[in-house]
Amino acid sequence: MIYSCLHTHTELCDGSGTVEDYCNAAFEKGLVSIGFSAHAPLAKKINMPSDWHLADENVESYCALVRAEKEKWSGKLAVYLGLEVDYIKNYVSPADSDFQKLGLDFIIASVHILLPDHSPVNWAEKIVGGKKLIGVDGSEDELRILIKYGWNGDGFALAESYWEAVIEMCGQGKFDILGHCDLIKKYNGGNKFFSTKDSRYIQYVKKLASLLADLNIVVELNTGGLNRGKINECYPSLDILKIFRKKNIPVTINADAHIPAHLNGHYETARTVLLEAGYTDTMLFKGRENGEPLWEKTPL
Questions:
Q1: What does pTM read for this prediction?
Q2: Domains of the chain and any CATH numbers
């Protein structure tokens, strides 16, 4: 299997290590390419600070750092510049023009943050004792807060809102990779908040699969939860991968690395899961041509 990783987070957002550190590690591990996908800046869009997104004032320096490494490693390691962009309805989307104008090689689109009934982003300020983004993957306590105060204690209603947001984001397009698409399950071990076997849950997945089948979007099989010991499976699950396979949805493997050591973490696990789901190949990113992403099929 050819190793690559387009989903990485350095010290410039919520990871550790420099851009150079990641390139060195990627080369040492035998990866053919590495992509940088800092969490796109949010502060100005939501008028609220975030300690896990790239600072607005650091966007230019981030882009310059990655482009410098791209030139330095030319002929030895393919280096790509990207962002992981959040979708928060009425606030931020991968389709936003400011992201589109940056000349990025790729964009990963993800849903981390849900707002009850499209409330202001600081809706939970009094609950958590200060301005704080409440994410579906922040901690189990944060998930409980979301469900209790935002969705009237109904965990499945939260899951429905999550999938609706993912589907809405995909409908807007303007990105290349769908990030950890079932992130909502991170703290749902044992189906403690909602059942992933519920027919309604599965219908949302099937609706997403039908939409993706008509779009030029690649789904990532994300090993980040395994790398950080947060969950015992990849994103998305085997059940979801089987649904995607029936629709011929292309998949690429990413480590969602927050430290350089995780760059190819649990890739053999991901390979095994893909084979079990019926996949025989993954997609390798090869850059852009005339504004369009170039992907190459590689055997598992």
A1: 0.98
A2: 4-299 (3.20.20.140)
